[in-house]
Amino acid sequence: MKLDGVPHRSIARTADGAGVRILDQRRLPWEVVWVELRSAEACATAISEMWTRGAPLLAMTGAYGLAMALAEDGADAALERAHAVLLATRPTAINLRWALDRVREHVLPLPPETRGAAAFARADALCDEDVALNRAIGAHGLALFRDLHAKNPGRPLNILTHCNAGWLATVDYGTALAPIYLAHDEGLPVHVWVDETRPRNQGALTAFELASHGVPHQLIADNAGGLLMQRGEVDLVIVGTDRVTANGDVCNKIGTYLKALAAHDNGVPFYVALPYTTIDRTIESGDQVPIEERAADEVTWLTGPDAAGTLRHVRVTASPAHNPAFDIAPARLVTGYITERGVLERP
Ligand SMILES: CSC[C@H]1O[C@H](OP(=O)(O)O)[C@H](O)[C@@H]1O
Question: I want to staple 94 with a disulfide (CB 3.0 to 4.6 A). Which of 168, 176, 229, 243 is the partner?
Answer without folding.
Answer: 243
